[in-house]
TrEMBL record:
Keyword Hydrolase: no
Highest taxon in the source lineage: Bacteria
Protein name stated in the entry: ATP-binding protein
Keywords of the record: ATP-binding, Nucleotide-binding
Molecular function GO terms recorded: ATP binding
Record-annotated Orc1-like AAA ATPase domain positions: 6-177
Length: 885
């Protein structure tokens, strides 16, 4: 990459690079991002070469380059960056470098065959982050410089990795330098780091960014370039004409000077009129004409090289061109002499502009045939359908069933390494082939499955088309419907999910498939924020599930749904726990019902754990959710799935009263969710729980900031939120002193929940909070609400529910009765695992009886919980009690 000519008017750019390298190598252990942009030929590659030379003795340098014809090859740029470094290690040491990420990330780099479930693309990116971080740490005193040229032509998977990796460079001794053409990058609409990083200086969690736009050379610099090539005797009019012809573009100026030298053109004013003709031969049709003058063989060999794109194998180019090795060597020599290619084996075009011009000069039919031959040659070499897929994508549709089969195989291979977008391209292309009519529905089903983790809306489109197309057998129809419902639910279309399942169930014969559809129908009906007949659905679910023993996964799924529904309704907690026990095998999800099993989905084990969390079985809940984190990490599902697992652990810690720990897990859940997208279901759950946790800690202003950042409020999503979102928002409004708004929100929550028979006051504490809000303005209604809350809590029977209800009822009783109720509340909450609620009840009890000892115990409990607000209030009450004694 080192430039072969001096750099003109690049002092500012080189100074920026020198400053970035000094910062990197100065022991600050903080990386950064240096971005150069400019039009084709402006000198980006030469500048990167000079930066590489500057860093050679101070850094370890890895470099890569995008290519116009290889943008569809997943991880192409990442492989260029990492493979040379990893090739230095023996296989066992390479595996150790990856650690637990080997099965997830190594296949993306071509270092291992895929194994295990399809990885989440975010998990692959996290694995690559880990490997680069490990490699950087092994470089000892030499920091790492990553150079990416022609980033506008980097493949999407590499761009996505770079986007995430560059955001955390402030943690690593790594400098990333990249160059791109701005318009081409904008045209690709790449989700790319530069668009999301601050303009300069960096902020917390982001690297320092230096962004430099390269400009064309001035007439003075162009004159210096001309005289360096043609001699100091080149006169001013000649030099001025070179600048006018090339527009100050360094590449075109260098090429024009070289051609003038080849023609032995005197660099004087009399020759200036010939420069425009010479300049035209350096690009476009002029370049093509110059290539044709080299002879038919050289022209055909250049075409073959252009089809192959980058890192061009001379042997493979000879095969495509239909010539012998000797002929290929002769063509290579002629193309090198003409400054069209460089290197020997592999070859590269001297400049991307030349590669583009040559590729576009190939007659379309010839180009298509050459891509087909390239795909055949790559497959014959045993490199696999995925390696051949970029050529398969260019083959003309011609009712070729072998092409369909190859593209489907390529899609499977892309999915297996975490490249669903590459798989989608292959399957879309296979649909155009076209496939046989009987295969079309299956191909649409495969296309829907390919986009399940990355694009629910696209998945819905393809799976609906698959179900509307004849050709799916019953097993695939059931699976397609189940996946369609899952995609609809994650696209905030729960009602449509339930309707799709009901329609398919109505035409499915009795058996395990029907039970699967029925279970999924109950799931997505029950998860809706609103429904027409909640009690009717609950009754149907009870009739279907209460008698089951959990003998197979269909029965276990129905028992899980029954347990979750019963918990929300506030049925006897022991009965609820019994349903959970029947839904598990030896206390764990059965094979096929685990966190990463695709047949049933992660929702079922999550529902078991959530049910445990709200029935005071917190050890069991925490064990299940810890297993979820491990399962998702092992499988590389580190997007929304891992975010949800952290959120669930946050729920467990919130229920235990470990508020600081809960906050940590919930913030991590939001961080992971933010990487996966915006407005996801997990955003609502994590935000709701975090707001509730911050309120318990006494940090109302922070809770408001979180609520506003994530638009926590109406309109609510179509799916229910964990816990009930309007209840938590009502609690936030109360903490802010916005009582009238809080009353309206809590009344609305009750109006939605009561008709559905959902009376669990721990999940949805609207009645207790509303009673407190109405205590002064409508004490009779408030006392009635509190009494009803107690009735429902005693029916449910958990210590947390009863203790919280007694604490609420105590607000409305005479002093002596209130003290007795609060003492009972303390007893129940001490027996539960809800340490924060225990501290709150003990504080209220100690305040009621003016007991310094009880309030001191409450303060100690609150401090241990991380409830700073409650601890502060307790300290104030203690001081008041002391002063009155």
């Amino acid at each position: 990459m080192k430039p072969s000519r001096p750099l003109y008017e690049r002092d500012h750019e080189l100074a920026a690079a020198a400053q970035a390298l000094d910062a990197l190598c100065g022991g600050q252990a903080a990386g950064g991002l240096l971005v150069f942009s400019g039009e084709a030929g402006i000198g980006k590659t030469a500048l990167l070469g000079e930066i590489q030379a500057m860093a050679a003795d101070r850094c370890t340098v890895w470099s890569a380059r995008g290519g116009e014809t290889v943008t569809s090859v997943p991880f192409h740029v990442v492989r260029q960056l990492l493979q040379p470094a990893l090739d230095q290690f023996p296989a066992d040491e390479t595996r150790a470098l990856f650690g637990d990420w080997f099965e997830i990330a190594a296949p993306a780099l071509g270092l291992a065959d895929p194994s295990g479930p399809q990885p989440d693309p975010q998990g692959v990116r996290d694995g690559l982050d880990y490997v680069v971080s490990r490699l950087a740490s092994r470089l000892s005193h030499r920091p790492l410089l990553l150079i990416v040229d022609d980033a506008h032509w980097a493949d999407g998977e590499s761009l996505a990795w770079l986007a995430g990796f560059t955001a955390r460079l402030s943690e690593l001794p790594v400098l990333v330098v990249q160059a791109h053409r701005p318009q081409e990058l904008a045209d690709r609409d790449a989700d790319w780091a530069v668009a999301r990083t601050p303009d300069s200086g960096g902020t917390a969690g982001h690297p320092a960014l230096i962004r430099v736009a390269l400009r064309a050379l001035t007439p003075e610099a162009t004159a210096d370039l001309v005289r360096a090539g043609l001699g100091e005797h080149a006169d001013d009019p000649f030099c001025r004409e070179v600048w006018a012809v090339t527009g100050g573009n360094p590449y075109e100026a260098v090429e024009l000077v070289a051609k003038a030298q080849d023609r032995e053109l005197p660099p004087v004013e009399e020759s200036a009129g010939l420069l425009r003709e010479l300049g035209a031969s350096a690009r476009g049709s002029g370049l093509v004409a110059r290539l044709e003058r080299l002879g038919t063989n050289a022209n055909r060999f250049a075409w073959a090289a252009a089809v192959l794109g980058t890192e061009i194998s001379q042997e493979l180019a000879a095969t495509l061109a239909g010539m012998s090795s000797a002929e290929a060597a002769d063509c290579t020599a002629r193309l090198r002499d003409a400054r069209i290619v460089s290197g020997f084996d592999p070859l590269e075009f001297v400049h991307p502009l030349i590669a583009t011009a040559v590729y576009r000069s190939i007659p379309p039919a010839t180009r298509t045939a050459m891509h087909g031959r390239a795909a055949w040659a790559i497959t014959q070499a045993g490199l696999g359908a995925a390696a051949a897929s970029r050529h398969l994508l260019e083959v003309h549709p011609d009712d070729d069933q072998e092409l369909v089969a190859q593209l489907r195989e390529a899609a499977r291979q892309h999915l297996a390494v975490g490249a669903p977008e590459a798989a989608r391209r292959c399957l879309d292309r296979a649909l155009d082939a076209p496939p046989r009519p009987r295969d079309r529905a299956v191909l649409l089903y495969e296309l829907g499955c390919a986009t399940l983790l990355s694009s629910p809306a696209t998945t819905v489109q393809h799976l609906r088309a698959a179900l509307d197309t004849p050709g799916l057998d019953e097993t695939l129809r059931i699976d397609a419907t189940f996946r369609l419902a899952s995609a609809l639910s994650h696209n905030n279309q729960l009602k449509d999910a339930a309707l799709s399942l009901a329609a398919e169930a109505s035409r499915t014969a009795p058996g395990p498939g029907l039970m699967r559809l029925q279970a999924a129908h109950f799931l997505w009906e029950g998860m809706q924020a609103t429904e027409d007949d909640g009690p009717g659905r609950s009754a149907r679910l009870a009739r279907n599930a209460d008698h089951l023993k959990g003998r197979d996964n269909a029965e276990r799924a129905l028992l899980t749904l029954r347990a979750f529904d019963a918990m929300l309704r506030g049925e006897n907690a022991q009965l609820v726990v019994d349903f959970c026990e029947r839904a598990l095998v030896d206390g764990r999800p059965a094979r096929g019902l685990g966190w990463t099993d695709s047949e049933w989905g992660f929702e079922l084990p999550a529902m078991v754990g959530i049910t445990y969390a709200f029935t005071d079985q917190l050890d069991r809940a925490e064990a299940l959710f810890g297993e979820a984190v491990r399962a998702f990490e092992i499988s590389g599902w580190s997007g929304a799935h891992l975010a949800f697992a952290h959120t669930l652990l946050g729920l467990t810690h919130r229920r235990r009263g470990r508020l600081a720990e809960a906050e940590g897990f919930l913030r991590e859940g939001l961080r992971l969710a933010d990487r996966a997208g915006s407005g996801l279901p997990v955003h609502w759950d994590a935000t709701c729980l975090l707001v509730d946790t911050l309120l318990a800690r006494g940090r109302t202003a922070e809770a408001r900031l979180v609520a506003d950042r994530y638009d926590f409020g109406p309109p609510y999503p179509s799916a229910m939120v964990l816990p009930d979102a309007p209840c938590v928002r009502g609690r936030l409004l109360l903490a802010e002193g916005r009582t009238e708004e809080a009353v309206a929100e809590l009344e609305s929550a009750g109006a939605a929940l009561e008709p559905r028979g959902r009376f669990n006051g721990v999940w949805a504490p609207w009645a207790g909070d509303l009673a407190r809000a109405l205590a002064d303005t409508d004490p009779a209604r408030a006392a009635h609400l509190a009494t009803r809350t107690r009735v429902h809590a005693e029916r449910f029977g958990t210590d947390t529910a009863i203790g919280e209800a007694l604490r609420c009822v105590a607000v409305f009783g005479p002093a002596e009765e209130a003290a007795h109720l609060l003492a009972e509340s303390v007893r129940h909450l001490e027996a539960s695992s809800s340490a924060y609620e225990h501290a709150l009840a003990r504080f209220e009890y100690g305040t009621a009886i003016r007991s310094h000892r009880e309030v001191a115990l409450a303060q100690k409990l609150a401090t241990a919980c991380g409830a700073e607000g409650l601890a502060s209030r307790a300290q104030q009450v203690r001081a008041s009690i002391r002063s009155s004694e």
